[in-house]
Amino acid sequence: MTVPSTPVSLAVEQARTRLDELTVIDVRTPGEYASGHLPGALNIPLDRVRQALPEIRHAAGRGEVLVVCASGARSAKACVYLARHGVGAATLAGGTGAWASAGHELHRPTACETSAGWSMERQVRFTAGSLVLLGVVLGLLVHPAFLVLSAGVAGGLVFSALTDTCGMAVLLAKLPHNRPRAARLDATLETLRSR
Q: Catalytic site residue 79?
């Protein structure tokens, strides 16, 4: 069986009607996942998909896998990676944002603090805005050379938009609140093995 190299995309309603027959893997950070995820979704952050490949392959052998993220970009990357390793998976068109916009429920852990659940996009906007503001203030009050900080962030945002990548998101994903605890990831992998 050949696995298509271009990810198959399921519309929100297609996924909703088949949700109980799909293994749903959410590739967002743990903080984003905790802020709301599809019912039954398992959290395996994008940078941990390689580590979880054997378990995902096992789950795909028993049924279809749906990979989700906030908008569909990270899940498409995960699907391409999985396809290169012989694992077929579909992505949710528009991600959890489209799911919620269609009026469907997102599950949230009861112990979740909303402050710990900022989406990656929100974290990037906050960090970029803070750095630009810091550069302007330091440039006005300390030395004009600090304006280079603001210009650098602006250039990074333009580059990010043109290439549809985000270096700042990659860096922010490495922060402790965006990393899964080893025990939590191990439990997720065990759940995949048992499917």
A: no
